[in-house]
Amino acid sequence: MGIINNNSCKLLSQKRVKSIFWLPMLGTILLLLSVGTVYGQHRNVNGTVLGTDLKPLTGATIKVANSDKTTSTDESGSFSIQASSTDRLIVTYIGYLQKEVPVGNNQNLRIELVADNNTLEDVIVVGYGTQKKETLTGSVSSITGEELTTTKTQNVQNMMTGKVPGVRVVQKTSEPGDFSNEFDIRGFGSPLVVVDGVPRGTLTRIDPNEIESISVLKDAAAAVYGVRAANGVVLITTKKGTSGKTNITYSNYIGFQKPIGLPKPIDAIERFTLFNERSMHSVDGPTLTYNEDDFAPYLNGTRASTDWYAEVMKPTAPQSQHNLSVSGASKDQAIDYFINTGYANHEGYWKSGSLRYDRYNFRTNVNAKITDRLTAGVKVNGILENKRTPTVQSWEIFRMLWRAQPNELYFANNNPDYFNRLTFQHPGAFSDDNVSGFSKDRNTWLQSQASLDFKVPYVEGLLARGTFSYDTRFNDNQNFRKEFDVFNYNEADNSYSPGSNNGPNQVRRTYGNTPSTLLQLSLNYEKSFNEVHNVKGLFLYEEGKNSGDNFYALRELGIPLPYLFAGITQNQEAKSNADGIFENATRAYVGRVNYDFAGKYLAELSFRYDGSSRFPKDKRWGFFPAASVGWNISQERFIRDNPSLSFINNLKLRASYGRVGDDSAISYQFISGYDYPYSGNNTALPGGHVFDNQFINSLGFRVAPNPNITWFTSDLKNIGLDAELWSGKLGITFELFQRSRSGLLGSRTVTVPGMFGTPLPQENLNSDETSGLELQLSHKNRIGEFGYNITGMVSLTRTKITYQERNRDGNSYNNWRSNPMNRYNDIWFGYGYEGQFQNYDEIANADFFTGRGTLPGDYIYEDWNGDGVIDGMDVHPIATSINPNSTEVGGAGARRNIPLMTFGTTFNFDYKGFDLNLLLQGGALSYVSYGEQLIIPLAFDGNALDIFLDRWRPEDPTADPYNPATKWLSGYHAYTGTVINEQSRRAIQNGAYLRLKSVELGYSLPKPIINKVGVSDLRFFANGYNLLTITGVKGVDPEHPAEIYGYLYPLSQTFNFGVSLTF
Amino acid sequence: MKKRFKIVALAFLLIGLNACNDLDISPINIVQDKDVFTDDGMQAYMAALYSRLPIEDFKYSGSENDGFNTWNQIWLPSLNTGENANRNQNGFLNPARGYWDNAYLVIRNSNYLIENLPEYSGSLGQEKIDRWVSEARFIRSFTYFALIRRYGGVPITDQVLKYEDGNVEPLQIPRSSEEESYDFILEDLDLAIAAMPETSEKPGRVNKNIVTAFKSRVALSAGSKARYGVPYVVNGVMLTGIPSARANDYFTQAFQAAKSVEGIYSLYKKDWSETDKIATADNYANLFLDNNSSETIFFKDYHYPDAVHSFDAVFSPPHMTTTYGDRFNPTLDYVELFDGLPKNEKGELQTTNADGTYIVYDYVEQLFEDCEPRLRGTVLLPGQPFKKLRTDIRRGTFIESVDPSVPIQKFVAEGLTVSYNSNPFYKSNVKESGTWNSQTPITLSTGDKVNPTGLDGPTSAFNATVTGFHGRKFLDPNLDASMTELHKSTQRWVELRYAEVLLNRAEAALELAQNGVTSVDGVVLQTDAFTCINQIRERAGAELLNSESELSNAAPLAVGTGVGSYVIAPNRGLQILRMERRKELAFENKLWWDLLRWRTADIEVNQRSWRKLNPFLFAKGAKTESTDYVLGKYIFDCRFDERNSRVTIPSKAYYEAIPGDEIASNPNLEQNDQY
């Protein structure tokens, strides 16, 4: 029971942990003391057993502990049994948690059972099959569709946040239609996503209402996916029809979003003030840039600051989702069906309405039993999404908004016919698709599969299965760039001089598709011998083909219409992106045998033999084995038969080992030749050269080939403990894991001189090791009509580089600094921080060198080596981050603030018709530093963010800051003009956070009432997302990525209201 | 039942038989030699090599990558030489940025062509093989030359290096001496010249004459290094510097190469006029824009939208572009080199009377009315028409109560760097605006309004000129201001033109003449140098040299004693020549290399603060005639850069440091001096 899901809280409320843990422990001790003492008199004990909604349960089993006496309840839920007052009764009923009740002196017992949402009898989806939780030996976490949908967002990844141990989700942005999360399992990297048995990358866009369950394979259990499983596997199973009755369910929610962690640019007076501070911040020539004449119009009200946010953004944006599903089965269960349609809408904050996302989901899952032995199934899924944005990306608009000066007008001379020409780009014009054009992304996924199951006659337990799937994704982009003018108003002659922006008018259409097929043929065998030897076997052959093709056409426009037909012949282009054109094929053989002895001793062996066209011929095939064992200790007699240990419902130890691979980065490096055409960049090194006024495409010189290149391998090890005590009052799952990768691709760029003249091919050179732990605790109880369960989980993961091809260093300090080997890959080197100079005396008396420009409020960095100078030799480990010392701005190589430790606690309460779900979630061991305007006020002479107003500055803004008599006001930041050291502990902020991720409060109308009008379920709910965040990060949200200098579209807080109706 | 079973079994079997993917799928967009060493394939191969040539063009800047192929030109070599000053950079920067890997990539693939193309002589014919191999030799030489200019002697390889079994030793090639490196290039160029036809296969590709003209540049550089370089020897190899005994040999090669393209190319004089200074100025500007110019030798073309640059957007004056416009600011030091301007005995622009009061001009263009046409063709002067607009250059405006007829004393004494506001008269009588594009105009008693500051600066802050001038060379005058946008420009970069060849020839001739060689191939060198310089001066509309004796080996003008006296040279003759190179080749990314080969950079640019010219308007009597032109009386103030920035070039800057990871990965590679 509850091993995998729904466990108790941890970390967040220590008091609660204590009370949950210690009280039952105390009880146990008392219980142990009482063993073997007085036995009371036998008598007749009567009682009733009640289930959900206090309905009497018919047929519940009542057993007197340590005896053969059993009985069951009658139609009114009543029973009667012989027992003494010291006896305990064990009550069981299918679908409910087992309960033990001391008889005591009660004559009439009232026993309420707690519904068990996931009993041990539950089956869990694993690779190419299912398994009972009870006999599971691998590390697999799962979550049901209902648990998922307590969080309401457009992205299923975000709905998993904090709910699945070992799954780490960092939401980068809440931009409509942007799904770029950090999502990994145990810090391994981007996992393989398998939907209904077929690898499909659509985890983010699936309609959550279609999901029956999600399983996460974290260890050797993933090995059956071979060469693609190095980062773990996420298995999604979609719903199917079950009951004999047709259920039609309509559900929706409508809500609004508010940005969180969005710093605000300052107004004109504040900007002038900071600007003056910066120009006064000069030892050689302090000057005031803005004088009283400049301030006057803003002070006397003749001019108002431009509030760029207010001009361009709206305070809230709507979102909504609607679903209609029909599910059921024919009376004889021969045909079952699940049909769903969903619509989701998500709007952005631009006032222009130019940013919005719409998605339509369609799914039909039908199974038909054709004969007793033959079953056919068809699953068809369609996803259609439309993302509409202005032609520039949102982060660029935020950059413009933060740069735009409050003393510059939105319209030139406030005349709405003329956009003002700003020092930088105009955020209003660029955020409005009516002005600057739009980009429409239409993605369509079609996923279909047909399967036949055949129970082979004459061999009991043997099932043959064939599945064929065809998936494709169509990508269709229409990018319409519109030219517009901005104007410079010259008051001297009352003229407006135009400047063209964003021209020429141009439309670009891109079209691509990526069809793939997968065929799976398998034999499954399952049988018990002599009731104790349980054997399961699987043999599977799989082959797949993947391909991709695309092209685009670009035309400048004669008439500004967003269609190619409006184009002119000059400068037109018809090309394709060569990287998106590919074809590859795979073949694999998979085998697996499970054996358990009476559910007590468990073992699983599996292998996968994988072949891929992406490797050189003699390196094409790889063998990936795995094994795991388990010991169900609670099934041993010494526990089962020991009454003092009867509080142990389940106790299992398990261990696994497996080898998997990763082929993702090979890109034909074993082949020599040329890439054609070379994909250049017209503003940098172009993909060709101009001869005779014609642009001639060039070749790309390939790197020297490496005929030996192959996938790299990962060895996964896992040890786990599952326990369930006191009928679910305490559930524990604890896991220790390690992944060792070897043969990671690396280049010998450093050890081979650059005069070799070509980048070297990658080789299977490097290795690393990721290890960590996961703990999940759960608590489940019901007191009267009040039921609750609490599940808490915490995961910790770190990666150590065990070998990395590198070069010697000149001196021992540098060697220590830059040798990554046997060191965590997340060590951030930088300067320590000791505080701020409080006054001129401190500067004068500092025991290390201070420049003559130093002022009170300036940051004091740590003289780590104590040599009296702050320089590169004082750099030492100060924090952690992924790619800690990277200078890349974006992409996977950029510095990333991903917590090494993640935690989450789910609280579920229900009382009568009300239900309440809370999710507290957070991360720790994460550090972040931002760039550009988030770290420097007035960067590019633009504007500053409000966070920089809290600063050191002279009381008298015109006072010479270098005059020791100047009086200072203190603040968080240094005096404007002191540029913080980006690599210092002061600039690097601790990104740990705890937040109330989601809250859902629901009320289900009493069934007797609604049933009368033919409605079987009716629930109203209110839901909130990102409601409260506790963090030390200044200005922005702690999850806000450091990438792109921190300009990404912010996260949102959302409030949703909805209804769910079934009839 | 049984029948059904058979059908199902058959179905499974059929699926099974259809299965078995073929895993031999070759990648789609990878092509092989047999497709490449063909007529069409070679066009793509050549495009790959030419596009990677280290040409210091519109996309060359020290701000990104290794300097090449970056659109965002902020840090330019011209900022170090006194040609240009801009607000983005105010000190020395090393314009070369570790150019190494990309050079050897070009060299490797040139070597590959030279090694393997001859095997295809059967299908292609010997003539094509000769032509293409020669082009590859040129490309290899051009690339090695870029390396040698930066690093001195470099590792030389004319083979496709092999890296097998992880054995790096064959790759650890030591540096050749600078002399060997130059000799390798010069020999390669000679081989190319011998095997090439006179005309290019296509415009944009090289031929015998282009390679010959380029050779004059290489040989001249080698000669200068031999004459002026300081040898740096490690383990018996002169890594930088060339034995001085070789100087005359290299200068002779330079002279011969330059002389041999005479008659094939000529100075562009299509619109030149002996009398019309404006026409002569436009003629000079047009030589860069006319794709049929007889002067252009080697060039790099652009093509919208596949290959573009942003020179117009970034370098046009601010009110003539939609973006920056604050990067092309010729210094007053540079402007003062030209003829036709009033100058004092120091050679500096004279804008004050003998009593230290400002000379009052009736309109802003008046000061430069008689200037040498080449200056107007290179620089946009105050009030100069351009792009159907006019440059609007004005530092500030005197309030209406200041009468132009009352003499005004110089605001800040000569040579001081203090701000104007330290002068109380200035502070109370001059209006200025910090930004050019949102100004509060001064309303005059006539009701007229004038902006305090010109739309193109100069301003003390924000994006406008910091010198009082904007540049003109290479800018497209036909591109409307409102259409001057980023990533839209496609005008040609002229990498090598006949004027440089003439100057190379004159310099080689003079170097030889002053060092014991009076004639080469029957040409009297002193006379030839004189003729070449006068050809350049005549086309420029400058004053001609009177006699060849002016190119004497007497002492040069001492610093501060006349026009161009800050140009360091060993004697007067070479000082005149070097000044001429400055004036003619400015803003073409050539002069930085001149300062290095003459070894004068650290002396000449020692604690230099570039000078600027600030025009001031009298509001009294002024009238706004158009948005960017105010007719009124002006004074001009010459002073040091108001940002108080100084430029010093360290002596180690004559060579760049070999990139650290190269030193680390090749134990045979020695580092340059002072690094």
Query: Helix count of chain B?
Result: 20
What is the number of E strands of chain B?
A: 19
Mean of the pLDDT scores of chain A? 89
The most extensive interface, with participating residues per chain, is: A-B, 106 and 109 residues
Radius of gyration of chain A, whole Å: 33 Å
The assigned structural class of chain A equals mainly beta
Q: How many beta-strand elements of chain A? A: 55
From the alpha carbons, calculate the radius of gyration of chain B and give it in angstroms.
Answer: 29 Å
Number of helices of chain A: 13
The main β sheet of chain B shows up as: 4 strands, mixed
Estimated share of beta-strand residues of chain A? 35-45%
Task: Give the biggest sheet of chain A.
Answer: 25 strands, antiparallel
How does the overall form of chain A come out from the CA principal axes? Answer: globular
Amount of beta strand of chain B: 5-15%
